[in-house]
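From the thread on structure requests for the teaching lab: each student submitted one protein with a one-line request. Submission from student K.M.:

"Model Small permease of tripartite tricarboxylate transporter from Paracoccus yeei, tokens only."
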Amino acid sequence: MQGTRTKDFWAGVVYMVFGLATMLLARGLPMGSTARMGSGYFPTLLGGLLVVIGLIAVLRGLRAPGETVPRIHLRPAALVIGATFFFAAALEWLGLVIALPLAMLIAAAASQNFRLSLVPLLGLLCFTAFCVLVFLRGLGVPMPMLGTLFGG
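Reply posted by the TA:
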């Protein structure tokens, strides 16, 4: 199949995967009816719409020659996704002021151009201070500034 490396094809596959996953996760929720929607109605409808859009994109990618997708580099993707999971797992244990800069460093390591120097470190500190001010102080989001490891 010559058209399977097009951006349309792979975007369609991603839409279909997310749509099917959404429908699968929502299947245990009550559907209700159109007049009185249950908690599973909207996710199921949205997931079905994603599947249809994905199917259209896949068919378009197979039918018409399009721009091909270059080789996918797994290391950068794994580092960025891993940084998100690290932050979620470490927030309670380390707290925001430690987990956030560490997660940003993990994600930044995905770039071939990243070098640890004074400017990126100052950026990490400023962004962390900004997040503490906005989320903890301003909005009152219930997350620890220092985690259980530090007695927080």
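TA comment: Residues 74-139 form one domain. Helices lie at 7-26, 41-63, 74-94, 96-108, 118-138.
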